């Protein structure tokens, strides 16, 4: 019987996802469940299992990001204090960090603006609009460029 995307996970598969999040290798995760390593590798190839694992991994990362964001105020205060430090090397390190992250923030904002424009153009093309003359833009270097392969869903756990 073919398995669909909406299929629910059994208890062992749920335990396997938890183990994958806690262990550094597939072998160690399989041993923790316990299931055969080949079985766990086969489960990772199932669309519904892989999707559940990606979702669980995303939730872990989002929780970590939220914790880091809560520290932003303290980090900014520490940089501010370091900029007022009498220690010149501490002051320079703080200034360099502020500048580095400011530039990174600008780069991120620029990338997001380009992505939003590309999405707008794609939506317009999908609706049948022309979206402007993208051929001339590409030849003049004024259009946006995109790596068609794009990034993958992230690294897999290696054993």
Short description:
This protein has 159 residues and is an all-alpha fold. The protein has helices at 11-22, 26-32, 37-45, 47-70, 72-83, 88-126, 134-140.
* Helix-strand sequence: HHHHHHH
Estimated radius of gyration: 23 Å
Helix content: 55-70%
For the report, how would you describe the main beta sheet?
none
Number of strands: 0
Helix-strand category: mainly alpha
Distance between the termini: 30 Å
Q: How many DSSP helices?
A: 7
Percent of residues in β-strands: under 5%
Shape estimate: flat
Given as residue ranges, the uncertain stretches (5+ residues, pLDDT < 50) are 135-155
How many separate structural domains? Answer: 2
Mean pLDDT: 82
Structure in words:
- This protein is mostly helical.
- The chain has seven helices and no strands.
- Helix 1 packs across helix 4, helix 2 crosses helix 3 and helix 5 packs across helix 6.
- The longest helix has 39 residues.
- The protein is flat and about 60 Å long.
Q: What is the topological layout?
A:
Blueprint: H1 11-22, H2 26-32, H3 37-45, H4 47-70, H5 72-83, H6 88-126, H7 134-140
Helix pairs in contact: 1-2, 1-4, 2-3, 5-6
Which features does this protein show?
mainly alpha; 159 residues; 69% helix; 7 helices; single chain
């Amino acid at each position: 019987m073919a398995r669909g995307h909406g299929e629910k996970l059994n208890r062992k598969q749920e335990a396997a996802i938890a183990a994958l999040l806690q262990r550094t290798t597939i072998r160690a995760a399989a041993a923790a469940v316990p299931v055969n390593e080949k079985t766990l590798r086969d489960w990772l190839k199932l669309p519904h299992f892989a999707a559940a694992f990606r979702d669980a991994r995303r939730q872990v990362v989002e929780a970590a990001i939220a914790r880091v964001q809560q520290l932003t105020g303290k980090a900014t205060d520490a940089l501010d204090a370091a900029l007022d430090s009498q220690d010149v090397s501490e002051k320079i390190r703080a200034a360099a960090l502020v500048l580095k992250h400011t530039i990174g923030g600008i780069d991120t904002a620029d990338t997001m603006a380009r992505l939003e424009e590309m999405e707008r153009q794609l939506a317009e093309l999908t609706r049948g609009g022309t979206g402007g003359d993208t051929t001339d833009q590409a030849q003049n270097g004024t259009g946006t460029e995109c790596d068609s392969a794009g990034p993958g869903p992230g690294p897999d756990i290696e054993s």
